[in-house]
Amino acid sequence: MRTKTVPDPTTIFEKSSPGRIGCNLPVADTPPVDWDTALGKTRNEVKWPEIAELDLIRHFTNLSHINYGIDTGFYPLGSCTMKYNPKVNERTAGMTGFVRLHPLQPVSSAQGAFEVIATVQDILKEVTGFEEMTMQPVAGAHGELTCLMLIKAYHESRGEGAQRRIVLVPDSAHGTNPASAARCGFEVAHVATDADGNTDLADLERQAKDNVAAFMVTNPSTLGLFEPNIRRICEIVHACGGQVFCDGANMNAMVGTTRPGDHGFDCMHLNLHKTFSTPHGGGGPGCGAIGLKKHLEPFMPGPVIKKVGSQYELDQSRPLSIGRVSGFYGQFLMAVRALTFLLAHGREGLPEISRCSVLNANYVKARLKDHLPAAYDRPCMHECVLTATPYKANGVRALDISKRLIDYGFHPPTNYFPLIVPEALMIEPTETECKETLDAFCDALIAICEEAKSDPDKLHDAPSTQIVGRLDEAAAVKNLDVTWKPPTPEPAGAA
Amino acid sequence: MNVPSDLKYTKSHEWIRVEGDTATIGITDHAQSELGDIVFVDMPTPGRAVKAAEILGSVESVKTVSDVYSPVSGEVSASNDALGAQSELMNADPYGSGWMVKVKIANPSELDALMDAEAYKAALS
Predict the structure, then answer these.
(1) Which residues of chain A lie closer than 8 angstroms to B60, CB-CB?
(2) B37–A474 CB contact, under 8 Å
(3) What pLDDT, on the 0 to 100 scale, is given for residue A2?
(4) What pLDDT shows up at residue A492?
(5) Domain assignment of residue A272, yes or no
(6) Distance from CA of B120 to the nearest CA of A (A)
(7) Read out DSSP for A130-161?
(8) Does A467 lie in the same domain as A431?
(9) Is residue A69 one of the residues assigned to a domain?
(10) Same-domain pairing of A124 and A92
(11) Looking at CA atoms only, how far is residue A79 from chain B in angstroms?
């Protein structure tokens, strides 16, 4: 019988053997240059790995086998990171007509591309309930920042710029919310969460004064709960003259079923990678499209795509615009992928996304309720926030449970967020997982919870089946060293 | 959880030791335990004036970055330089070598609003 072994952890430098080469170069037809003369000391200081082609192929192929991604297994981070992207998206985004476009070619010769952007914007307006949409921002936090810049410009246009310097954020907010507010020059104040996991209305009313520029609300909240008082919240903030921004990170729970524009929000951002199946991009290229109500339209970043007759044109005449927020038209191929996804689902299919993602999260929550209780015991939206506090007495923390999941073949969920939930484990299955996968994941977590009681050290030592064991995260932060060094230094003067 | 009886405490999990007109301030054993391994401490420079409940600095752990609030008003007289290289002292010895700052107390009556060990223990449970 063949047993699965722990992958070979050797680096490519350790596999190197002096003089070994991966390919034979043809004889030079120019006068040879002596390497040592040309490169001097560098030639000896930089130890390039010397390795044969087959060994190189094996090295990187084996490394790729250690990767864990959505194409290899269940990923409970869900849309929080990036949900499954249907492969057809890549087919359309790779079509020659899109790929060979140049951002500087005349607008008249790229009408199809502008139609793609305008069509996605129109559908997203319909999905979110906003009157204007732009796909200029290139990431979610960039969309947040752009919305706050629009709100700032709006207040300034009314002569209230200096007075409205506070941005309210819930104590459960994504860290990007206060960061965007601070980056935009606002002061941040926190609004409390009540015992049911909703915005504490009394606390909001106390802070809703004429110095408030905006309230940034994530709905459903980061606790995975729909804010039942959202209309009242928007009324309270509007009554004091503030604007309400919707952090659209959790739009996957609402797409096709309810619209933030109808809830009373003035603007919102969407992460196309979270809801509309584009790549996350690891910091770019992404798309943080933003939707706005009419009163914010004069301040929109340019260029704005407008259809005049049968032609798409760029409307640059916007004297109150906050200006450009990205080069050209944002990340164009994100629009192609999002359009593919939107058209593949259609008006009838989009609500299935939110319904299935909400159903899957509630299924996980219900299956785990006797082992990992929900932080707030009520139906959740597309994600459930559970707490590992019952195992604290056994010396087991949320982190230990997550690390042990790796041994069971699953990627860990989000840990310790939202910050207001002790020992938080946030699980977001998304709409694409089948019941068998969810059951296997829940079975693993239940088995781990049993181990937490009977054999907690199994969790403390986890993971034990991987290329490395438990990593010292503090040391990794404080003494980050990504340079490989030979295990035994060469004697002095050897170079 | 270790809650020394000779100290005073805040709701936001700072402790304060009063000696004459000087207060030594740090974060509690509960706070360090919740934060996990601390990797960086941002401290005020001596000479800075602080008000009670104002941000004194911040503590970064592998989980999160948390603000530390001053329990009293006054002038920062010293900060614990050792934490620059050894932030783990805050985890290992939160009430001793892991102290954060010393403040010259401006208004001693503010101390009355702080919790004693019994009240802090009750707040934790």
Answers:
(1) 477
(2) yes
(3) 46
(4) 64
(5) yes
(6) 18
(7) -SEEE----SHHHHHHHHHHHHHHHHHHTT-T
(8) yes
(9) no
(10) yes
(11) 21
One domain for residues A364 and A285: no
Contact B88 A474 (CB under 8 A): yes
- What pLDDT score does A21 carry? 85
Size of interface A-B (CB pairs under 8 A): 21
A143 shares its domain with A291: yes
Which domain, by its residues, includes A390? 350-478
- Among chain B residues, the shortest Cα distance to A418 is held by B64
pLDDT, tens digit, 9 for 90 and up, residues A377-391: 999 999 999 999 999
Is residue A92 domain-shared with residue A195, that is, in the same domain?
A: yes
Residue A322: which CATH number? 3.40.640.10
Coil vs helix vs strand at A438:
helix
User: Could you count the other beta carbons within 10 Å of the beta carbon of residue A286?
Assistant: 25
- Beta-bridge partner residues of A384: A427
Residues 6+ apart with CB under 8 A from B76: B44, B45, B46, B47, B48, B49, B50, B56, B101, B102, B103, B104
pLDDT at residue A1, rounded to an integer: 46
Pairing mode, if any, of strands A267-269 and A290-292? antiparallel
Min Cα distance A279 → chain B (Å) is 26
How far is the alpha carbon of B89 from chain A, nearest alpha carbon, in Å? 13
Query: CB A474 to CB B38 under 8 A?
Result: yes
Shortest alpha-carbon distance between residue A223 and chain B (Å): 17
**Which conformational region is residue A423 in: left (phi greater than 0), alpha (psi within -120 to 50 degrees), or beta?**
left
Evaluate whether residue A15 is within a structural domain.
no
Q: Which of 69-88 (B) contact A at CB < 8 A?
A: 87-88
Domains along chain B with CATH numbers: 8-106 (2.40.50.100)
- Which residues are registered as beta bridge partners of B103? B23, B76
φ and ψ of A92, to 5 deg: -70, -40
Q: Are residue A112 and residue A209 in the same domain, yes or no? A: yes
Contact status of B64 with chain A (Cβ, < 8 Å): yes
Tell me the pLDDT tens digit for each residue of A99-150.
999 999 999 999 999 999 999 999 999 999 999 999 999 999 999 999 999 9
A318/A454 same-domain check: no
Minimal-distance CA residue of chain B relative to A480: B39
Contact A478 B64 (CB under 8 A): no
**Number of domains into which chain A is organized:** 2
Alpha-carbon distance B37 to B90, whole Å?
9
Chain A hits for B34, Cβ within 8 Å:
422
Domain boundary among A292, A310, A344: A344
B chain contacts of residue A399, beta-carbon cutoff 8 Å = 36
Residues A361 and A285 in one domain: no
Q: Which of B37, B38, B63 sits opposite A416 (nearest CB)?
A: B63
Nearest residue in chain B measured CA to CA from A393: B1
Asked whether residue A56 is assigned to any structural domain, the reply reads no
Beta strands in A399-495 (DSSP E): 414-415, 424-427
Walk along chain B (125 residues) and give the pLDDT tens digit of each residue. Answer: 899 999 999 999 999 999 999 999 999 999 999 999 999 999 999 999 999 999 999 999 988 889 999 999 999 999 999 999 999 999 999 999 999 999 999 999 999 999 999 999 999 98
With a threshold of 0.80, does the pTM exceed it? yes
Taking an 8 Å cut-off on Cβ atoms, the answer to whether B39 and A399 are in contact is no
Contact B40 A477 (CB under 8 A): yes
> What residues of chain A score a pLDDT lower than 50?
1-3, 495
